[in-house]
């Protein structure tokens, strides 16, 4: 046998794996809970527990085995389930107080299962309300403050808008209040970091907090989230500062290709080991607070003094698009959110820029029109009006709906803190400065409620 | 006529990357370690990249005494001893990244 690769190619890969923080960001096992549906709540809980424990019993040890084999760290192991609005509804008895208690009990069950299996999050405690709120939706939404206060690893989402349905402004108004409640009930508002509101939600997202196992998926599936902002940034820094943007885009595309290929190799093996269908790879440059793991730093390496200045939206568009193109060439199974994430508290350069007031919510909103997630991990003053929160959500929903893309909102009002003060949640949630919001009122707009209709571009029949 | 006993087990290829400022003793130390673990060297190549010597070895782990994770730890120790950075990776990762 002879070496088929040049020393340079081998060296590039070796570097990626040793110093550039290339890792598989998450292996997420999605589990269908629809067969557990029952009007008997105890029976439902029992079936759910058995199903998850049985399907996921080898998730950790088999994933660790593959980690050792390839020497590529697999940072997070997670589970997503069928959105609970589809699972719990049958067991409700039309008494809101009792039914909400069931939600909390169920959430604690999921939390306990996650702890037993040693997965760091279990996602899917949510539902879909793009065109209306069912009784089950209302109960689950009302239960969220208690659910997120009393559990550690349960993540929640709600789909409030889609390009086909428009925006459910009654639900948007409701969530302004709910987010405020969650914030008051949890330490430094951290409960809000476990809730994402979506427009055009995707059913195979392996990342948290918005991941869930869509009802159109198979019984069990492995979805992989790959990341590698450090790898992309090093590639840019290695090349001349006057490299034209089209050539730069091509370089990024090539890096995305390589990391996607490596991720797919590993992901397929994990699925095979677990005897479960391989789903998709989500190629999303997702930052962590580790030094060198910042997405904002990539934008700065592209030639911006500080993320948030003029040119940021264009740079982010180039980056997101190049990552998608490289990913799609590398694998036929690309899905999830794929692109670039801009969660503020999880990106040290974003936080730095927010502190200096170079980055603000208005600029972040513009950036969400070209990246692959949304207004993410943004800390706002604890006393932000609920209608203002709803206004921010509505803006983000509109961007998603009008542009036929997925957008999300994960806002954290921090009780007792004002603009410019600091909050530290620790762990994956990171830390950040409280960002300012506009004081001018959105009250009357939000109080109108109703449904903002879908765009004409959706009428494609 | 001498019949050679053929080992029909499929190969289990890995690539070792050795990076350091000089080459003194690299081949000797690494080959010794691999010999001890019954790892067969199939091919070697090397070049200078910037300030570093980079050597790569294609090895076959099919008869190895340890699994790749164990070999990784051993090679790390060897690397520390001789001042080199030594990594070992399953060959499939390189194939997946560098070939369309």
From TrEMBL, chain B:
Gene3D superfamilies: 3.30.70.260. Residues 15-89 form the ACT domain. It holds the Pfam family ACT_6. Transmembrane segments: none annotated. SUPFAM superfamilies: ACT-like. It comes from the Bacteria. CDD domains: ACT_1ZPV. Belongs to the UPF0237 family. This is UPF0237 protein COS76_03050.
């Amino acid at each position: 046998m002879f070496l088929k690769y040049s020393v340079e190619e081998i060296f590039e890969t070796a570097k990626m794996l040793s110093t550039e923080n290339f890792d598989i960001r998450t292996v997420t096992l999605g589990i269908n809970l629809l067969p557990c549906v029952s009007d008997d709540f105890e029976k439902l809980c029992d079936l759910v527990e058995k199903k998850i424990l049985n399907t996921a019993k080898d998730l950790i040890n088999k994933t660790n085995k593959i980690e050792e084999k390839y020497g590529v760290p697999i940072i997070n192991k997670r589970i997503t389930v069928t959105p609970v609005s589809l699972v719990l509804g049958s067991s409700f008895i039309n008494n809101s107080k009792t039914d909400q208690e069931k939600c909390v009990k169920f959430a604690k069950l999921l939390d306990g299962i996650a702890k037993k299996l040693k997965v760091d999050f279990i996602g899917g405690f949510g539902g879909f309300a793009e065109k209306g709120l069912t009784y089950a939706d209302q109960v689950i939404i009302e239960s969220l403050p208690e659910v997120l206060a009393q559990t550690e690893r349960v993540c929640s989402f709600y789909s409030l808008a889609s390009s086909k349905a428009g925006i459910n402004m009654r639900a948007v108004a409701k969530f302004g209040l709910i987010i405020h409640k969650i914030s008051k009930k949890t330490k430094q508002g951290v409960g809000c970091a476990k809730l994402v509101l979506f427009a055009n939600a995707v059913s195979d997202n392996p990342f948290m907090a918005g991941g869930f196992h869509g009802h159109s998926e198979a019984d069990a599936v492995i979805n992989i989230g790959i990341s590698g902002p450090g790898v992309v940034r090093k590639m840019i820094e290695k090349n001349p500062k006057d490299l034209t943007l089209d050539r730069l885009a091509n370089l990024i595309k090539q890096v995305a290709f390589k990391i996607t290929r490596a991720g797919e190799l590993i992901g397929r093996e994990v699925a095979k080991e677990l005897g479960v269908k391989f789903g998709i790879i989500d190629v999303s440059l997702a930052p962590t607070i580790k030094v060198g793991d910042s997405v904002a730093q990539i934008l700065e390496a592209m030639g911006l003094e500080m993320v948030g200045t003029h040119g940021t939206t264009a740079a982010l568009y180039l980056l997101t698009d190049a990552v998608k193109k490289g990913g799609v060439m590398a694998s036929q199974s690309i899905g999830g959110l794929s692109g670039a994430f801009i969660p503020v508290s999880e990106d040290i350069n974003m936080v730095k820029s927010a502190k200096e007031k170079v980055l603000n919510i208005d600029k972040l909103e513009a950036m969400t029109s070209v990246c692959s997630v949304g207004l993410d991990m943004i800390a706002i003053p604890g006393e932000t009006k609920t209608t203002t929160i709803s206004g921010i959500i509505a803006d983000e929903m509109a961007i998603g709906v009008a542009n036929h893309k997925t957008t999300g909102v994960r806002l954290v009002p921090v009780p007792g803190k004002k603009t410019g003060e600091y909050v530290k949640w620790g762990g994956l949630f990171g830390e950040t400065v409280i960002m300012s919001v506009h004081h001018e009122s959105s009250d009357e707009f939000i109080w109108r409620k109703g449904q903002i209709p879908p765009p004409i571009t959706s009428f494609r029949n | 006529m001498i019949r050679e006993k053929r080992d029909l087990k499929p190969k289990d290829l890995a690539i070792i990357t050795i990076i350091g400022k000089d080459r003194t003793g690299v081949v000797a130390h690494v080959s010794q370690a691999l010999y001890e673990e019954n790892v067969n060297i199939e091919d070697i190549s090397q070049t200078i990249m910037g300030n570093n010597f980079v050597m790569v070895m294609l090895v076959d782990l099919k008869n190895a005494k340890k699994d790749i994770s164990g070999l990784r730890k051993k090679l790390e120790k060897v690397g520390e001893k001789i001042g080199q950075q030594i990594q070992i990776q399953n060959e499939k990762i390189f194939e997946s990244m560098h070939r369309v």
